Amino acid sequence: MDCIFCKIIAKEIPCKILGETSSSISFHDAFPLAKGHVLVIPKKHHQKIQDMSSDENTDLFSLVHKMISKVDSLTNATLVAVHNGKEAGQEVPHVHVHLVPRSSDDSASAIHSMFDSTLKLSESELDELSKKLKL
């Protein structure tokens, strides 16, 4: 498999590991958006979160929970981002959670700034979406 994250896990590519569990690791992003930009990934290759087992998911987000306190201590604000699939902007097809320190003077903005417009949905459209999304 030609996955850069799998190569990091296999220690074929060096990185500074910041946190590790039996199923997940955290390390500096190679192309940071801010000082302290960290990735948290599962050790087993999965493209999307829903492909992971419940145990792997719990382990991954437990490490996210631990790392976010460290990252948040840098600026007191952290963007937590997951691109879940190629169409969502995922560049490496391996689940990864970005923890990006934010500050009022950085060049980023709110999630709504990523899109050209907001949707105006009718009540019937919301009802239909609710039927599809409700657990």
Short note summarizing the structure:
The protein has 135 residues and is an alpha+beta fold. It has three helices and five strands; from the N terminus they run αβββαββα. The chain has one domain: HIT family, subunit A, CATH 3.30.428.
3D architecture notes:
- The chain is an alpha+beta fold.
- The protein has a single domain, classed as HIT-like (HIT family, subunit A), CATH 3.30.428.10.
- 29% of the residues lie in helices and 17% in strands.
- The protein contains 3 helices and 5 strands; from the N terminus they run H-E-E-E-H-E-E-H.
- It has a 5-stranded antiparallel beta sheet, with helices on one face.
- It starts with a helix and ends with a helix.
- The relative contact order is 0.16.
